[in-house]
Each structure stands twice: as structure tokens, then as C-alpha cells.
């Protein structure tokens, strides 16, 4: 299977994908083209929407029941598991995940699908509840909304697409995955897995396209729910499009995630954690630490420790299993990140880069720590391996500053007095605030994380991701003794 041969999976059939003849997806390691960049095809969009609507009207999800949906998903998980190597290889090229990340993500895709099966078994879809007065029986139901659209991000498309699609199918919703045009290669693996698993044609469709395709899907009244992960401007456009027909929205967007270092922090451990956090996915992840606030007495020690930690990191090709930091997704994004650093330098910032380059890559950048820039001038998220560091005198002023920029995705606090650090974290506006760590994983298996302010609508967590695709219905015998 060649992942460079982009195709749409519509109504159970592979169809050629529209492409832009003069635009290419490149290998960020070499700069060599791997596939034409996807284009928009209104005919494919309409066929996918019609297929999803027909699948919903057919009642397949209801007739198959939880058992039937689980069987389909189990086959899908088995197929993904068998294709894990192909999936990892695609993710290493588009978007350029390093081997040590792409491998576990690919291997974990089957686990995500099986997790959706488990959620369905545990949560069920029907519960008997007490009736009012002498009425009854009464049943509380959780039923699928109808056709849904999932728009995964380009930075790590597989876990978002697979996890949400599996949850939606488990809930009974026909799914259209609109692949991000910047990182389309792994979609060919999802499509093949769906075909091998014999997923009913209208229940999982995977199509390519650019922003016009995304808006056409979001604007269509047949789409009852939209789950999108991406940037704030794109999220606003999708929200406006879906609002016209009151589509249910789950939008995980961006934000500049603050870090507060308390006076008692262990600087060596803090620097190690920040270096790891700012370079995960080459800094291209929405919960990456971005803006660090540190007491003046610890500032220089922190900078030196950060530089030492970053210098140990191996920078090179994403396909090299020994590399710690790979390239950015493409040359346009690299230029944007470098431009943002130059803008900070223009207002007085000093950028200090570090890392051990083991192989030059076409889209590679060195991690950078920017000091001396005014905090007010460093309000924008930099989606790359860059931290800005600022001294502070009063932690209350820092909290007020970061909370008043109307973003609230994630945040970090470092301090050896855990109770004090927890108290500080509880005051930060954000869905997930981590104390003394910057891992990719949720803090708890019971995690619930809302998106605050312009960082999105809705939230995530294993249960949230599943329940988003279902609505409440109550069916029962009315109370004959009701006074009015």
C-alpha cells in the first residue's frame, strides 16, 4: 500500500482524491515531495454527506446494537494493529513525528478503538429511572446525534482521528473524517483498515480537502456534530459555519500555555521537564509549555539549566530512532516559527538556541529559549520548540496577567511545596494544570478537561470523547395523577 496515493473512502469505496498540481506534501527530513497536496472536490463532499445521512436513516447502528457495533470496531482494531508499521512510517513523514513517538502512537491506535468498545459496554445506552407519581415505566436513553464530522489536526492526526471515530461509531454515529491537508499520508492506512474490517460504508468515510471542504461539511445541516482540533482562527470559522444549523461542537484549539515557577522549585528538575515539554512533537503540540515566569533570583540559574538540558537533545531526521527532536511539519511552518522568534528579538528579546545536531534536515530548527522580551509582547502561541522566559515579582500579578488573555487550555506550576503549587495551579484558568511535570498523558484515567475561553468549546477525557456523540432522551409512561 502506497500512502502517497491519496484517496477518498466514500460509501465503502476508494475514490481518487483531488489534488493541487503545483502544491506538494514534502518529506520534512529531505525536502523531497511525497504526494500532491489535496484539493477540494464538492462532488466527493456531497457523496460523503449523502452516505452518512443514508447510514443514519437506515438504522444500522440501532439494529446492530451495542454487540454489532462492538464487533465491527473489534475487527477495525485488529486491522489497525496489523498495519501499525505502515501507520508509523506514514506519521514519520507526514507530519514528521520522530520514530520513538510515531511507533507508540501507531501501536496505540488499536488500543484506542478497543477503549471505545469498553466505554460502550460500561456506559450502556439505556437506564430505567423512577417515574413521577404513579407513572412508569420510564427509560433514560443516550442515543446518537446522527452524522458527525471529525477534523483531526496535522501535528498528530492518527490518535485524534482514530480515537474520535471509534467513539462516534460506538455511540452509533456515521462518521466523516476530514483529513488535514497538511498531513494526509496516514489516512490511507485508516482507509485500508476500515475496508479490511468491513466497516459499513456510510459509517466511516475518510475524505481529503482544504479549508473549503471543511467549511462545506460544517455548513451542511445533515451534520449534527463537529469535533475539530486545530488553531483558533480555523476554530472560529468552523463554529460560525456549524452555528447556522445548531450543530453540536467540540473544538480543541490553541493557546499560550503558562508556566509558573515558584521560589522553592527544584531548578534542575524543572529545567529537565521544560526541555522535554517544549520539544515533544518538535514543540508542535497544543499543550506545550510556552511562557515561563520565574523569580528574578532563579532566572539565570534556570536559563543555564535549560540550555544544558537542551544541549543534550539529539536533533535530526524523524526516521532515526535515536533522535529526540525531529523537523517541523513543512517549510512554511518553519518560516512562521522562525519569524515569530525574530519578532521577539525585534522588541528586545534574546534567543538562545541549543541542541546536538546529528543530521541536518530540510525543516529542522534548533530549540530556542527567548529571554528579555516583554511578557506583553510574547502573548502569541509559538507552535514549535520555543520558550519565552520572564522574571516576576508577584505571583498574583502573573496569575492575573495570564488569566486575562482569554485562553485556557493548559498550564504548569513547579514548586517543592506541593500544596502551595496545587493552590497556585487551582487559580490558573485552564482545563489541565500540571504540577512538576509536562507529560503528554492525562493526569488521571478519570480526567475531564474543559476548554476555556478562546481555547475551544467542550472538553476531552475518555468519557467526554464518547458522550459527545450522544444526546439524552427520556421515554416513559406519564403520571396520570399530575395536577397540571
What are its keywords?
Aldehyde Dehydrogenase, Chain A, domain 1, 2 domains, Aldehyde Dehydrogenase, Chain A, domain 2, 23% strand
Fold and architecture overview:
- The chain is of the alpha/beta class and 484 residues long.
- The chain folds into two domains: 264 residues, Aldehyde Dehydrogenase, Chain A, domain 1; 197 residues, Aldehyde Dehydrogenase, Chain A, domain 2.
- The chain contains 14 helices and 26 strands.
- A hairpin with an 8-residue loop joins β5 and β6.
- It is globular, with a radius of gyration of 24 Å.
- The termini are far apart.
- The relative contact order is 0.14.
Summarize the structure.
The chain is built from 14 helices and 26 strands.
Tally of separate helices: 14
Spatial order of strands in the largest sheet: 15-17-18-13-12-20-21
Strand percentage lies at 15-25%
* Cα end-to-end separation: 66 Å
Mean pLDDT: 95
How helix-rich are the residues, as a percent range? 25-40%
Derived from helix and strand composition plus strand pairing, the structural class reads: alpha/beta
DSSP, total strands? 26
Low-confidence stretches: none
Shape descriptor: globular
Amino acid at each position: 500500500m502506497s500512502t502517497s496515493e491519496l484517496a477518498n473512502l466514500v460509501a465503502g469505496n476508494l475514490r481518487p482524491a483531488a489534488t493541487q498540481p503545483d502544491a506538494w506534501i514534502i518529506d520534512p527530513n529531505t525536502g523531497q515531495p511525497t504526494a500532491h497536496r489535496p484539493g477540494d472536490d464538492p462532488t466527493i463532499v456531497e457523496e460523503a454527506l449523502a452516505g452518512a445521512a443514508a447510514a443514519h436513516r437506515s438504522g444500522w447502528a440501532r439494529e446492530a446494537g451495542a454487540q454489532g457495533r462492538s464487533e465491527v470496531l473489534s475487527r477495525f482494531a485488529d486491522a489497525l494493529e496489523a498495519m501499525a508499521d505502515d501507520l508509523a512510517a506514514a506519521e514519520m513523514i507526514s507530519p514528521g513525528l520522530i520514530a520513538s513517538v510515531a511507533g507508540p502512537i501507531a501501536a496505540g491506535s488499536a488500543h484506542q478503538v478497543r477503549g471505545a468498545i469498553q466505554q460502550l459496554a460500561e456506559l450502556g445506552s439505556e437506564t430505567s429511572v423512577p417515574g413521577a407519581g404513579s407513572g412508569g415505566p420510564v427509560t433514560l436513553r443516550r442515543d446518537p446525534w446522527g452524522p458527525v464530522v471529525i477534523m483531526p489536526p496535522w501535528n498528530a492526526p492518527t490518535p485524534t482521528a482514530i480515537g474520535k471515530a471509534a467513539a462516534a461509531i460506538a455511540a452509533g454515529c456515521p462518521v466523516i473524517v476530514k483529513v488535514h491537508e497538511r498531513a494526509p499520508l496516514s489516512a490511507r492506512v485508516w482507509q485500508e483498515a476500515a475496508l479490511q474490517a468491513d466497516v459499513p460504508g456510510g459509517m466511516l468515510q475518510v475524505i481529503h480537502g482544504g479549508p473549503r471542504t471543511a467549511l462545506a461539511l460544517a455548513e451542511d445541516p445533515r451534520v449534527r456534530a463537529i469535533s475539530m482540533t486545530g488553531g483558533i482562527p480555523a476554530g472560529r470559522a468552523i463554529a460560525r459555519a456549524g452555528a447556522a444549523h445548531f450543530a453540536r461542537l467540540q473544538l480543541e484549539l490553541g493557546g499560550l500555555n503558562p508556566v509558573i515557577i515558584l521560589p522553592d522549585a527544584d531548578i534542575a528538575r524543572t529545567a529537565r521537564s521544560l526541555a522535554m515539554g517544549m520539544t515533544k512533537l518538535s514543540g508542535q503540540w497544543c499543550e506545550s509549555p510556552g511562557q515561563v515566569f520565574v523569580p528574578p533570583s532563579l532566572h539565570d540559574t534556570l536559563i543555564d539549566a535549560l540550555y544544558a538540558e537542551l544541549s543534550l537533545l539529539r536533533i535530526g531526521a524523524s526516521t532515526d530512532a535515536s533522535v529526540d527532536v525531529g523537523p517541523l511539519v513543512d517549510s512554511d511552518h518553519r518560516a512562521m516559527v522562525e519569524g515569530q522568534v525574530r519578532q521577539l528579538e525585534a522588541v528586545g528579546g534574546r534567543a538562545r538556541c541549543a541542541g546536538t545536531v546529528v543530521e541536518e534536515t530540510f525543516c529542522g530548527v534548533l530549540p530556542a529559549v527567548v529571554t528579555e522580551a516583554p511578557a506583553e509582547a510574547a502573548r502569541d502561541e509559538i507552535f514549535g520548540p520555543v520558550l519565552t522566559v520572564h522574571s516576576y515579582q508577584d505571583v498574583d500579578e502573573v496569575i492575573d496577567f495570564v488569566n486575562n488573555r482569554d485562553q485556557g487550555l493548559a498550564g504548569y506550576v513547579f514548586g517543592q511545596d506541593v500544596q502551595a503549587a496545587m493552590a497556585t495551579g487551582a487559580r490558573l484558568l485552564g482545563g489541565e494544570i500540571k504540577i512538576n511535570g509536562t507529560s503528554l498523558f492525562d493526569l488521571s484515567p478519570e480526567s475531564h478537561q474543559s476548554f476555556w475561553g478562546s481555547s475551544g468549546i467542550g472538553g476531552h477525557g475518555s468519557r467526554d470523547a464518547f458522550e459527545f456523540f450522544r444526546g439524552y432522551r427520556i421515554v416513559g409512561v406519564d403520571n396520570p395523577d399530575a395536577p397540571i
